[in-house]
Amino acid sequence: MSFDTLKSKIPDFAKDVRLNLSSLVQDETLSEQQKYGLILACGIATRNAEVAAACEAEAKAKLSPVALDAARAAASIMAMNNVYYRFVHLASNKEYGTLPAKLRMNVIGNPGVDKVDFELWSLAVSAINGCGMCIDAHEKVLKDAGLPTASVQTAVRFAAIIQSAAVALEAAALAAAA
What is the CATH number for 78? Predict the structure, then answer.
């Protein structure tokens, strides 16, 4: 499914979502790799097959095979880390934070693409998954690398828009089934 097909499936009650989706590919503040990696990683993170497929199709035309795999890896590794570190952060028993995670996450150290791009994708996925501890960690790496605050905000905006597309499709499916 193409991005245009996805936009056409967004119902009228969510026309703002449709318009916001159109703005993603128009963004000129991020590099092409950052932008399309965000689209793919966030699409996967929504856990909505239609959104993920449309984001995959959009990114495939713009990213190298290595960058495609890195964006997929960001979504995958953050799915694991966000659950674990959100638990560590939210648990009343702070002893969990002193224990080794014992989770393999080598891809973070060697993602195959520019580390800033991978961190940006990881931040956006962490925003979708709601892990404050991971958001803070990735945002710090990005700020330490000199990425402007506006670029960090843009990545989270991408996450918000792509997640809202998944929710709009789910709402339309529920309405149709009712």
Answer: 1.20.1290.10
55 is catalytic: no
Per-residue pLDDT of 29-76, as tens digits, reads 999 999 999 999 999 999 999 999 999 999 999 999 999 999 999 999
Point out the catalytic residue in the list 45, 70, 131, 162: 131
Residue 131 among the catalytic residues: yes
Domain carrying residue 118:
12-177
Residue 104, φ and ψ in degrees, nearest 5: -75, 130
Which tokens is 137 given?
């960690």
Angle between helices 115-129 and 32-45 (to 10 degrees): 30
pLDDT score of 178: 83
What is the value of pTM for the model shown? 0.94
